């Protein structure tokens, strides 16, 4: 059920109803600008991943800064973006089911679209959907870049699938999907480099074999917030699929730089605003943001700029917080910002972004792809 907005433009931040999903607009815009500046000289292009933000508004802000388009993981997300005027969308995932593929094919009337495959059955099903819709669809072969989730082995097997796509009357071979998801959260730069070296090697081998078969490879896509600089500098990857950089959750902030300090390329810009609803005994307080308001799959949220306050448990509607005797005790009604451990599923729990700047609400953006699981 679409919830009423928790704020109105012009409100003070401390007047916002809670729990609410806040964007610190200064930090958010700095993140957009920083990524654009980092990518521009590399020769690669940003195809930002919308599974993080789920918003055509944010997609257009990214594209205004040079992004060539957006990624989605689901057809429903692609529909929300296409209906919102985003003109270039890659479903960076395999899609199974005639109904979903018919919906996907219909989007070709609104946007330039592409999809991934890692099995001949995918190719046959996408071909059937394209034929029925009277369109020609672009299909990328997903290779296993090291995450051991989806993807065919790099090399000859991937080339054979690419040939099948290219030979299909209603399909065109669009390139390679080579995203290494688990590498994004490896903590040390040495671990990230080692993981992505394997991804680059597999992509390079496959591209070389494709060229030997006379097949052009327009796109080699991958890279995320944790490793995009490595893919960008490879000379192999043409598109980068970072998404979380716009918000920077607590888990990404645990990645380390060459000096062993937390990476500071991007700033925290996404917060769950919460209210203290109970202070039953000294040393304990309870807030109104439970795991229905903030995802905990990548760890408990942090209290922004209050290391003396620790969230120690999340239940459906409550977050239990503890603090020491030296801490100024929270009071009932006090508003606190939480930094979520994982931004993507946290966003999916909310209907609205509340954009704030200098302590005031500046804008409200609907999260239109929320719940897009099909």
String of helices and strands: EHEHEHEHEHEHEHEHEEEEEEEHEE
CATH superfamily of the largest domain: Alanine racemase
CATH topology of the largest domain: TIM Barrel
**Could you give the distance between the termini?**
17 Å
Reported for the largest beta sheet, the result is:
9 strands, mixed
Give a nutshell description of this structure.
By secondary structure, this protein is α/β, with parallel strands linked by helices.
Task: Walk me through what this model shows.
By secondary structure, the protein is of the alpha/beta class. It has two domains: 13-21 and 264-366, D-serine dehydratase-like domain (Lyase, Ornithine Decarboxylase, Chain A, domain 1), CATH 2.40.37; 43-248, TIM Barrel, CATH 3.20.20. Helix content is 27%, strand content 25%. The protein has nine helices and 17 strands. The chain has helices spanning 25-39, 56-64, 75-83, 98-106, 120-133, 156-167, 189-212, 228-232, 343-347, and strands spanning 20-24, 45-49, 69-72, 88-94, 112-117, 137-142, 171-177, 219-222, 239-240, 270-281, 284-287, 302-303, 309-314, 319-323, 335-339, 352-357, 360-366. Strands 1, 10, 11, 12, 13, 14, 15, 16 and 17 form a nine-stranded mixed beta sheet that branches. The protein has an eight-stranded parallel β-barrel with strand order 2-3-4-5-6-7-8-9, surrounded by four helices. Helix 7 links the parallel strand 7 and strand 8 (219-222). Helix 4 packs across helix 5 (120-133). It is globular, with a radius of gyration of 22 Å. The mean pLDDT is 97.
């Amino acid at each position: 059920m679409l919830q009423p907005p928790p704020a109105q433009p012009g409100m003070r931040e401390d007047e916002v109803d809670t729990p609410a999903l806040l964007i610190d607009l200064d930090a958010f815009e700095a993140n957009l600008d920083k990524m654009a500046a980092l990518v521009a000289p590399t020769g690669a292009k940003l195809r930002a991943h919308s599974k993080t933000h789920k918003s055509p508004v944010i997609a257009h802000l990214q594209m205004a800064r040079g992004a060539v388009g957006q990624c989605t993981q689901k057809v429903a997300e692609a529909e929300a973006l296409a209906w919102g005027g985003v003109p270039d969308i890659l479903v960076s995932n395999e899609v199974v089911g005639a109904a979903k593929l018919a919906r996907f094919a219909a989007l070709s009337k609104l946007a330039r679209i592409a999809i991934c495959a890692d099995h001949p059955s995918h190719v046959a099903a996408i071909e059937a959907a394209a034929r029925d819709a009277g369109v020609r669809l672009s299909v990328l072969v997903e290779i296993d870049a090291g995450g051991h989730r989806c993807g065919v082995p790099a090399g000859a097997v991937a080339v054979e699938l690419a040939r099948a796509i290219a030979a299909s009357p209603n399909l065109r071979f669009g390139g390679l999907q080579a995203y290494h998801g688990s590498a994004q959260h490896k903590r040390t730069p040495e671990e990230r480099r080692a993981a992505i070296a394997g991804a680059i090697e597999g992509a390079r081998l496959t591209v070389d074999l494709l060229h030997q078969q006379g097949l052009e490879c327009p796109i080699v896509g991958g890279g995320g917030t944790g490793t995009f600089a490595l893919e960008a500098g490879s000379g192999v990857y043409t598109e980068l699929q970072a998404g979380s950089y716009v918000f920077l959750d607590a888990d990404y902030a645990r990645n380390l730089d060459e000096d062993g300090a937390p990476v500071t390329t991007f700033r925290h810009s996404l917060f769950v605003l919460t209210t203290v609803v109970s202070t039953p005994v000294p040393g304990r307080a309870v807030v109104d943001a439970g795991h229905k308001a903030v995802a905990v799959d990548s760890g408990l949220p942090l209290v922004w700029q209050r290391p003396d306050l620790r969230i120690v448990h999340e239940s459906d509607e409550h977050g239990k917080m503890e603090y020491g005797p030296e801490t100024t005790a929270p009071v009932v009604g006090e508003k606190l910002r939480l930094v979520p451990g994982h931004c993507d599923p946290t966003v999916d729990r909310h209907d609205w972004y509340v954009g704030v700047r200098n302590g005031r609400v500046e804008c409200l953006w609907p999260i239109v792809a929320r719940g897009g699981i099909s």
